[in-house]
Amino acid sequence: MNSSRQQIRQQIRLRRQQLSDSEQRLAAESLLSQLQSFQPFVDAQRVGIYLANDGEIDPDPIIQWLWQQQRQVYLPLLHPFCKGHLLFLQYQHDTLLIRNRFGIPEPSLDVTQISPLNELDIILCPLVAFDANGNRLGMGGGFYDRTLSRWQTNANNKPLPVGLAHDCQHVDSLPHQHWDVPLPTIITPSKQWQWTIKSI
């Protein structure tokens, strides 16, 4: 099963890396349009999001729109004390970013900018691949699975996790493990995929 997951990961990463700059830009703009018709996103005041890496669909148009709408934007930071987990820190125009050990930009640790997870309304999550049942395949570190493992038991089921992906990242079926956290919604440039996720 692990080898199958790794093969899918390699294939889909290559597929998205081969998208041209113009295809990436069009996808990013179309993704924002999809989100603007997704009511939980429209209503959200505090949004966790990521910065694109490794061919991921670029959320920058989303970030710019959120700032224009006076919403609060938060980026993930590798938790310095709780291995394998993420913290979310507020991201503003002048936020200092540094590259973590994976080479991904993240905010410099500032405890005054941290948001408790259940005070975020929504987290827009990156992913490598997804299937028609809401199963998500990430980069293999398990950071989002650990961070979101109890989202359904938080106050008001917050934050709502929503996967963002290119259309080409959809696969028929994903092998999954017991620790994988399925997502109730995945949004691509052309479609909103939604499922009812059983409570943990």
UniProtKB/TrEMBL annotation:
Pfam short name (any one): 5-FTHF_cyc-lig
SUPFAM superfamilies on file: NagB/RpiA/CoA transferase-like
Residues that, per the record, bind substrate: 51, 56
Cofactor(s) the protein needs: Mg(2+)
Binding residue positions for ATP: 5-9, 136-144
Record has NADP as a keyword: no
E.C. number(s) listed in UniProt: 6.3.3.2
Molecular functions (GO terms): 5-formyltetrahydrofolate cyclo-ligase activity; ATP binding; metal ion binding
Catalytic activity: (6S)-5-formyl-5,6,7,8-tetrahydrofolate + ATP = (6R)-5,10-methenyltetrahydrofolate + ADP + phosphate
InterPro entries: FTHF_cligase, FTHF_cligase-like_sf, NagB/RpiA_transferase-like
Keywords: ATP-binding, Ligase, Magnesium, Metal-binding, Nucleotide-binding
One GO biological process term: tetrahydrofolate interconversion
Enzyme class: ligase
Protein family according to the UniProt entry: Belongs to the 5-formyltetrahydrofolate cyclo-ligase family.
Record protein name field: 5-formyltetrahydrofolate cyclo-ligase
Organism in which the protein naturally occurs: Corallincola holothuriorum
